[in-house]
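Last lecture ended with a question: if I hand you only a sequence, what can you say about the shape of the protein? Today we answer it with a concrete record. The protein is Probable membrane transporter protein. Below, first the input exactly as provided, then the predicted structure, then a couple of comments.
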Amino acid sequence: MDTMTLWHLTGWEFAALAFAALLVGFSKTAVSGANTVSLAIFAAVLPARASTGILLPVLIAGDVLAVLTYRRHAHWPTLWRLFPAVGVGVVVGTLFLVWADDAVVRTSIGVILLFMAGVTVWRRRRADAAEQPDEVTSRTGRAKARSYGVLGGFTTMVANAGGPVMSMYLLSAGFRKLGFLGTSAFFFLIVNVSKLPFSAGLGLIDGHSLLLDAVLVVFVVPGAFLGKWAVTRINQRLFERLVIAATVVGGLQLLLA
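The predicted structure:
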């Protein structure tokens, strides 16, 4: 795998990855989907294709902390409804990674980031409109779960960028803050763990990447505690605007590099 070890990183590169890891912890316990900024940082510092495998264990560490924090608030019927479609999306994403080289993956991550920013904006406008959400047990609700599940599985496999897709689905299904955080915590822990054999089989995870992960996970923990403290205090509207702006900048940087 064309990746970097800890000793190949400059001080500024390591600082950027450490900040991205801290933001992963924060996003998992406060604002789901904010780790698209972490994705952009990892893809900018590391080889784009390899960055998806290096970021995955860091995300799993954040997922574990989120589950420990919000485990009582998960809605399992919604999770079971999503998993089959997500599995299809993960398989499609794996096949894409078999075919794609680093340049294609880098461009794809940039496009996905910009698309996710658009999805987030659209989600916010729907929330502002205060429309009645679709019942998850209705025909429309089941179709929505399948479509979002496939898209979420593909984006999370190719770029670890399924957060905004699933955030949009859970909000449109009427989840409040704690139910949203608990359900998304279990969702991403299960999905990300299931991606490990696919990523290892593609050569995206090896001993060098795991060594770097072991160092970066240290920064996930304070980020998670910061998110837990901030979740009841943060001005989420302002923060989401900052996340959208940073995501757009990150996506454009990857496309223009």
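Comments.
1. The radius of gyration is 17 Å.
2. The mean pLDDT is 81.
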